Amino acid sequence: MTSTLDIVRAGPVARVFLNRPDVRNAFNSAVIAELAQAFATLGADDTVRAIVLGGHGKAFCAGGDLNWMRAMADYSWEQNRADAMALADMLWTIYSCPKPVVGRIHGDCFAGGVGLAACCDVLVAVEGAHFCLSEARLGLLPATIGPYVLRALGEQASRRYFLTAERFSTTEAQRLGFVHALTAPTALDAQVDEIVSILVANGPQAVKASKRLVQDLAGQPITPSLREDTARRIADIRASDEGKEGVSAFLHKRDPAWKAPS
Questions:
Q1: 3-state secondary structure 212-254
Q2: For 255, which of 106, 225, 232, 245 is 20 to 30 Å away at the CA?
Q3: What is the value of pTM for the model shown?
Q4: Is residue 174 part of a domain?
């Protein structure tokens, strides 16, 4: 069976490309299974320090594959639920991946593609790309991607775009805080590489813990137990080998042990 992904390793960086350019990288059950496996494997690999998620061809991801959607029309409720759970589990695997994930967005990023983008930690998009939560046009709803899109796009913007299924530009996506960096098409990879180089220069355990910190703190009230938890986390990392090495390197004006030579 031909892989639906193209995975490229270069030192501590893994690049995962959706590889179905003939259908604008629309996903089906095979793509969902391969993405889940790829991110589970890369997330558990201590030699991986950052992951880039992108797509080959003219689009990042156009959402669900038409043939896959046609097949679902004849599914029973139980089959639909099992299929949706596979998608939900894949999205969670990307979102909870302990390695930082940089989304490389170009062309169309529609429906489930917006969900993939929302699971990334940093989004770099080309000027002229478009986003669309198009499910309502088909009488559907962005349910499995909803938790991630809501967190990344914000509640008010999600109210609008979930309901209207309008397209919105990368400029608007950046204004809403969904996209972090805009770039010309010819500079996309350079911009992604710049962010990746910053990520791999940081302490790998600190990056992992920082990613988890954001996810755990988002939306939480500042209670005594939360304050105690944050104090425990900083104490844990200060006392760790990486924390001690980082502070020592800073004080002695040298590179820390984890920093790759330039």
A1: HHHHHHCCCCCCHHHHHHHHHHHHHHHCCHHHHHHHHHHHCCC
A2: 232
A3: 0.95
A4: yes
- Residue 215: domain span: 203-251
| Mean pLDDT of all residues belonging to the chain | 94
pLDDT in tens, 134-152: 999 989 999 999 999 999 9
Number of domains in the chain: 2
Residue 1 has what pLDDT? 46
**DSSP H stretches of helix in the chain:** 29-43, 66-72, 77-95, 112-118, 146-153, 155-164, 170-175, 188-200, 204-217, 224-238, 241-251
Distances (CA, A) of 62 to 115, 149, 165, 197, 258: 11, 16, 14, 29, 38
